[in-house]
Amino acid sequence: MTSQPLKLKVCIAGATGWVGKPLCLAVSAADDLSLVGAVSRSHAGQSLKHAVGDSTLDLTISASVAEALDTPTDVLVDYTKADAVKANVLTAIRGGAHVIIGTSGLTGEDFTEINEAALEHKVGVIAAGNFALTAVLLQRFACQAAKYLGHWEIIDYASDTKEDAPSGTARELAFRLSEVGRPEVTHPVEETIGEKESRGATLDGSQIHSLRLPGYVISVEAIFGAKDERLTIRHDAGSGAEPYIQGTLLAIRQVRNYVGLVRGLDKIIE
Ligand SMILES: NC(=O)c1ccc[n+]([C@@H]2O[C@H](COP(=O)([O-])OP(=O)(O)OC[C@H]3O[C@@H](n4cnc5c(N)ncnc54)[C@H](OP(=O)(O)O)[C@@H]3O)[C@@H](O)[C@H]2O)c1
What we know:
Elements: E1 8-13, H1 20-29, E2 33-39, H2 48-52, H3 65-68, E3 75-78, H4 85-94, E4 98-101, H5 108-121, E5 124-127, H6 133-146, E6 151-158, H7 168-180, E7 201-203, E8 206-212, E9 218-226, E10 229-236, H8 242-254, E11 260-263, H9 266-269
Parallel strand pairs: 1-2, 1-3, 3-4, 4-5, 5-11, 6-8
Antiparallel strand pairs: 6-9, 7-8, 9-10
Helix pairs in contact: 1-8, 4-5, 6-7
NADP nicotinamide-adenine-dinucleotide phosphate (NAP) binds next to loops.
């Protein structure tokens, strides 16, 4: 008799959200994954099948990550909110679970702390500001352009309901560009005459300008300037969460191969 390979046990924090719901369905449908936990404060104690509207999701929603992790879990996936993600991630790491971070809002210092905790507890953490393949391509093309063009800034567009800024996509783009180099500066931001805030935030050396308006989902532009010419590389998210699901599943399957933090889906995609 051949034994069945063990399924990876996955818990989703933010299970009732825009990304969380389709992700619960995708994890549950995958042959090699088992959905063992789901977290949402407002649906705590209810059945996930009612919250998501699918009769196959037969488990009870927990009120917190700590409570959900009472059930043995290999990987915690977080798609919650900027004010909750760090505590959730550290709780999971200290409990010995690997972690996938989809939620935006973590700062460079937060990532340093998460990396240190992951190294200490010998677990992997994969964080991506954007798990969509097209966003990965934007990062890659922008990093290529930065090798040839010394001046760039980033524009981050999102809906007026988005609470954190800049978006995870824009933060990660600035981080990845900083691995290529720092943009050249003709007139330092600190020496701006007038309101220097109008020059945006400086993250990892790049200026980021965040718009929050109705009508946007998530878009990001990397704009490169050179004498008498410009190059704009732009990514636009659509209105559905599907593009993030495949990237997140890939990260769930890969995360056990790492110890410490990996930032960016492109680091694992090949
Ligand atoms: N990396 C990527 O590719 C990617 C793609 C899309 C979105 N995102 C990011 O993922 C996050 C979630 O996005 P979404 O659109 O799915 O959000 P959403 O629809 O508002 O869902 C948020 C989920 O998290 C839970 N939640 C909210 N606040 C919480 C808190 N303080 N503590 C614990 N749970 C909390 C909500 O349930 P309760 O309120 O009942 O707790 C809900 O289940 C955002 O940061 C977004 O920017 C990332």
